[in-house]
Design brief:
Blueprint (H helix, E strand, L loop, with lengths): L1 E4 L5 H11 L4 E8 H6 L1 H6 L2 E17 L2 E9 L3 E6 L2 E9 L2 E9 L3 E7 L17
Antiparallel strand pairs: 1-6, 2-3, 2-8, 3-4, 4-5, 6-7, 7-8
Length: 134
């Protein structure tokens, strides 16, 4: 697993593209300690709080609130769940061998929100819309 940081000036476009390309994909959402992720990824992931498991991704949005930026991740089918991370300070793409596996959002207080795909595949390998979009 490799994290690639997204420059702040590209956040809005990157998140909008991620949300659009991966709408309906099954994701797991976790909340983890940022320092632990940077120190020992495996241990941090095993100790992370699991917020949602294999739920369809509905939307990921960045919102500006005064001088802060926050992220909202919405997942679910019949009943949706929303997860917020305020004071966003870093955004990462998660990749393995060039295939996108998810996104990581870090806040200024040492928390990270991870959105990870169940079965990552390159978007160009798909043949159309997700079941939830048909």
């Amino acid at each position: 697993m490799r994290y690639e940081e997204v420059p702040r000036k590209a956040w809005i476009e990157e998140v909008a593209s991620f949300s659009r390309q991966h709408h309906g994909w099954r994701v797991t959402v976790r909340r983890a300690d940022t320092a632990a992720l940077d120190y020992d990824l495996g241990a941090a992931l095993s100790g992370a709080e699991v917020l949602a498991v294999e739920q369809p991704l509905q939307v990921v949005e960045l919102r500006r609130k005064e001088t802060q930026v926050e992220v909202m991740v919405e997942v679910g089918e019949e009943v949706s769940q929303r997860f917020w991370l305020k004071e966003l300070c870093r955004l990462w793409r998660e990749q393995v061998d060039g295939t996108e596996e998810g996104m990581r959002f870090d806040d200024a207080k040492g928390h990270s929100l991870l959105v990870e795909f169940r079965a990552p595949v390159p978007p160009e390998a798909l043949d159309g819309l997700a079941e939830t979009e048909q």
